[in-house]
Amino acid sequence: MQEQMKVIKEKMGKSIDVLKDEFSSIRAGRANPAVLDKIAVDYYGVPTPIQQMAAVSVSEARVLVIQPWDASTLKAIEKAIYASDIGINPTNDGRIIRLAFPPLTEERRREIAKDIAKLSENTKVAIRSIRRDGLEKFKAMKKASEITEDDLKNCEKQVQDITDQFCKNVDELSKAKEKEILEL
């Protein structure tokens, strides 16, 4: 039983980690190297993350600098950024690429806030799905007479408490990210 609870917590924790990862890649009007995490550059036929091909740094609050270790990859990196959907045009000076993040408009902030709410709700759905799967396993154990009716009730309460805790965590993360976006 405790092993099953541990599995449920781990799966819900992974859902939270995915949400944090998604939030880190949301462009908030400030230069953030995490926006490049999902961009892969075609490097000799192999999709390679930019962070493995170049030094990525924040030179100013709204400027990201990408300095490739191999100057011949400059064009490929620039092409990959253009092809991505981050909405920022790179400027290439022959040695480095600069990404200047424009300040967010009020309308764009509201769109991002809606996206944050959508990602949060999707994470809660995933957490509830994990809860449902866990409860089904406990009911199967009861049916197979591996646990008693009282054990089943205790397990259902524990799983619900864990679910509530993780959903609350999602709400807190969501509020913090929305506040960050709306109060820039």
Characterization of the model:
The chain has 184 residues and is α+β, with helices and mostly antiparallel strands. It contains four helices and six strands. It has a four-stranded antiparallel β-sheet with strand order 3-4-6-5, with helices on one face. A two-stranded antiparallel ribbon has the order 1-2. A hairpin with a 4-residue loop joins strand 5 and strand 6. The longest helix has 38 residues. The radius of gyration is 22 Å and the shape is elongated.
Feature tags:
single chain; 184 residues; four-stranded antiparallel beta sheet; 4 helices; 6 strands; 57% helix
Q: Which H/E pattern describes the elements?
A: HEEEEHEEHH
Helix content: 55-70%
Mean pLDDT: 88
Low-confidence residue ranges = none
Spatial strand arrangement across the major sheet = 3-4-6-5
**Class based on secondary structure composition and strand pairing:** alpha+beta
- Computed Rg: 22 Å
* Strand count: 6
Largest sheet at a glance? Answer: 4 strands, antiparallel
Using the alpha-carbon principal axes, give the shape: elongated
